[in-house]
Amino acid sequence: MGLNMNKMMKQMQKMQTKINKLQEELAEKTVEATAGGGAVQVTANGRQEIVNIKIDPAAVDPDDVEMLQDLVLAAVNEALRQSQEMAAREMGKITGNIQLPGF
Predict the structure, then answer these.
(1) Residue 29 to residue 58: CA distance in whole angstroms
(2) Prediction pTM value
(3) Number of domains in the chain
(4) What CATH number is associated with residue 36?
(5) Tell me: the pLDDT tens digits for 47-63?
(6) Which runs of E-coded beta strand occur in the chain?
(7) Rounded to an integer, what distance in angstroms lies between the CA atom of residue 18 and that of residue 93?
């Protein structure tokens, strides 16, 4: 029983090392989402951090700020969704799709 436990602990440590490396790599990987036919473009990294927002000046209408806000919100939510999917896909390669807390 003790031998199996040692083997399992070593496997868990190895997996943790891979997870730590993946988290670093995810900070460098990005996804991009757009809204309004490209009027708003949002880039997020694999850590679900928004790293860039581009807004086409033509989308800025002082008389309709609400529309621009909706476009930004839609693009941000889509970028975050894609980022989460990317992170889950990459994590699944390491964990064999075992659900880990926080991922």
Answers:
(1) 29
(2) 0.76
(3) 1
(4) 3.30.1310.10
(5) 999 999 999 999 999 99
(6) 30-35, 40-45, 50-55
(7) 10
